[in-house]
Write a structure and sequence with these properties.
mainly beta; 6-stranded antiparallel barrel; 12 strands; about 40% strand
Length: about 210
């Protein structure tokens, strides 16, 4: 059984439950996806389904050969599954895979922030604001010992590239699933910017 879908983040809004409680939700364009490849434990070492999503204007020759007769997909992603016996190439999967009240895990890529300092990236307090420290307000301070080990130890929290990390948010409740509109509403926020790629899996549905 296929455990997930590829989708695109549309943005956030709010909905009201039957009891009148308002919930912040993320709207996701989930699918439709097409099965582009089925991997089996006998042949590939593990069971998985590769899904295609979105339309690409240009594909190179290997991509065309791989997707021959299936379409020109912009995104291809794998979803692990326990059983692939009933899954066939070219099968169509839509948002009806998820039911209202079900819990899902959503994977996305966080917004890129470029090169960031330690105050923004690691929430350092910064240096003193008085006593003559006029240019140390957002500096990291000491990054090593004075004598031993006479070098900067690897792994220290320093300034650097921030964002564009793969992030997964677990156990988000499905509040609406509309196959006609390919629309999925999940409670809470998901990683990434608007129009960002998302992988939506049933909670506990493998990698």
């Amino acid at each position: 059984m296929i455990q997930g879908l590829i989708g695109k983040k549309l943005g956030m809004t709010q909905v009201f439950r039957d009891n009148g409680r308002m919930e912040a939700v993320t709207a996701i364009e989930a699918g439709p996806c097409v099965v582009s490849q089925v991997k089996t434990a006998d042949k590939d070492g593990y069971n998985a389904v590769q899904l295609g999503f979105g339309e690409s204007k240009r594909l190179n020759l290997p991509e065309r050969g791989h997707l021959k007769g299936l379409g020109q997909f912009k995104h291809l992603r794998e979803f692990r599954t326990d059983d692939v016996d009933d899954i066939e190439v070219a099968a169509r999967v839509d948002v009806s895979l998820f039911k209202v009240g079900e819990l899902v895990d959503v994977t996305g890529w966080s917004k890129g922030r470029g090169f960031a300092g330690v105050v923004k990236r690691h929430h350092f307090a910064g240096g003193p604001k008085t006593h003559g420290q006029s240019d140390r307000h957002r500096a990291p301070g000491s990054i090593g010992a004075s004598a031993s080990p006479s070098r900067v130890v690897k792994g220290g929290r320093m300034a650097g590239h921030m964002g564009t990390d793969r992030v997964t948010v677990h156990h988000l409740e499905v509040l609406e699933a509309d196959p006609e509109k390919n629309l999925l509403l999940v409670k809470g926020a998901v990683p990434g910017a608007r129009n960002g790629l998302l992988l939506i899996r049933k909670s506990g549905g493998g990698e």
